[in-house]
Amino acid sequence: MAEEDGPTARIVVGVDGSESSRKALRWALTQARRQNAAVEAITGWTFPATSSWIPVPASDLEAAARQALSDTVDQERHTAPEVPLDTHIVHGHPAQVLVDTANGAALLVVGCRGLGGFTGTLLGSVSRYCVEHATCPVVVMRDD
């Protein structure tokens, strides 16, 4: 298919504002350019476990998630400005949101802060869940 016919695949990337998610978005945009694919940047958000103790309006959490996604896209869009890019904020556990969104995608790209029991050596819980449950290939970008 010629490039002017539009993207032939969809690459989903998880964005949470961390350095590893910025790396994931950069990598996804570069890969999408190579594959004539579109990128779908997703931020999943949910109430923190301590939210029952501290009243935090859902609108504040959603706004913070939206801002993290917007800031990250603004910082990394220059990587491949010609690549079609959609962004979505979804209420739900980030790992499940990413796996669900990536259903039918060519690729899922996630960051990893490695904050498991041995910091810096294990996959984080979200990236690990994605690797174990996604129905498409998963690329994990680690913090340096």
Q: Give the overall shape.
A: globular
Q: Please state the structural category.
A: alpha/beta
Termini separation comes to 37 Å
Proportion of helical residues = 25-40%
**Uncertain parts:** 117-121
- Spell the H/E element sequence: EHEHEHEHE
Q: What is the strand arrangement across the widest sheet?
A: 3-2-1-4-5
Question: Mean pLDDT across all residues, rounded?
Answer: 87
Number of helices: 4
Estimated share of beta-strand residues: 15-25%
Number of strands: 5
Evaluate the radius of gyration: 15 Å
For the largest beta-sheet, the strand count, sense and barrel status come to:
5 strands, parallel
Characterization of the model:
This protein has 144 residues and is of the alpha/beta class. The protein is 37% helix and 23% strand. It is built from 4 helices and 5 strands. The protein has helices at residues 19-35, 58-76, 94-101, 125-133; strands spanning 9-14, 37-45, 85-91, 107-112, 138-142. Strands 3-2-1-4-5 form a 5-stranded parallel beta sheet, sandwiched between helices. Strand 2, helix 2 (58-76) and strand 3 form a beta-alpha-beta unit. The longest helix is centred in the middle third of the chain and has 19 residues, at 58-76. It is globular and about 50 Å long.
